[in-house]
């Protein structure tokens, strides 16, 4: 039963990639030097391709065999989704706490505020480095939500005027803005592959 699912997955994946690239079955057969009937059987889920056949097809479709075969089973697992979002919430709270501790604490001095400014750049640039395939907006939503929430919570809890004065004097707001901008535009600072 598992082989049948794998066969269907590979056939559907090859078919969708071929259509996405605008290649006909005949063109795929010619470019990959694989028999047209074999490609038709693979796409109809009648057979599982051998490794050599799969490599030839993947070469034409410009995808690695491991990426083609890799099933995205995590998308359907509710526990994985909950764990993922729980981690993001905890991570955002930790980022908020680090910046808040370095800027708003009663014992902060100029050194810790300067450390907050540096940290507000280097933490997000590390996130950008490790999530380089993510879009700017997605990265900002996943890892910058805590910063945005912190900004809004300060405005609500302290009142608009006092929050601006405290936020700018303590360097909290500049740190939050640096972090948000680095998350969104940080990929432009990193070297391209």
UniProtKB/TrEMBL annotation:
The keyword Membrane applies. GO terms for cellular component: cytosol. Pfam families: HTH_3. Residues 14-68 form the HTH cro/C1-type domain. The chain crosses the membrane at residues 78-102, 114-131, 143-161, 167-186. CDD domains: HTH_XRE. One of its GO terms (molecular function) is DNA binding. Keywords: DNA-binding, Membrane, Transmembrane, Transmembrane helix. This is Helix-turn-helix protein.
């Amino acid at each position: 039963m598992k082989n049948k699912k794998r066969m269907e997955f590979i056939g559907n994946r090859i078919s969708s990639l071929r259509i996405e690239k605008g290649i006909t079955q005949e063109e795929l057969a010619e470019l990959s030097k694989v028999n047209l009937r074999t490609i038709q059987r693979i796409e109809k889920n009648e057979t599982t391709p051998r490794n050599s056949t799969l490599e030839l097809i993947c070469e034409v479709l410009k995808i690695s065999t491991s990426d083609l075969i890799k099933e995205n089973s995590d998308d359907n697992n509710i526990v994985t989704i909950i764990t993922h979002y729980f981690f993001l919430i905890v991570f955002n709270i930790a980022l908020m706490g680090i910046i808040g501790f370095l800027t708003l604490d009663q014992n902060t001095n100029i050194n810790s505020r300067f450390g907050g400014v540096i940290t507000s750049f280097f933490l997000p640039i590390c996130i950008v480095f490790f999530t380089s395939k993510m879009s700017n907006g997605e990265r900002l939503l996943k890892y910058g939500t805590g910063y945005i929430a912190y900004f809004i919570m300060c405005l609500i809890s302290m009142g608009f005027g006092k929050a601006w004065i405290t936020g700018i004097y303590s360097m909290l707001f500049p740190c939050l803005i640096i972090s948000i901008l680095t998350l969104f535009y940080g990929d432009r600072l990193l070297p391209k592959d």
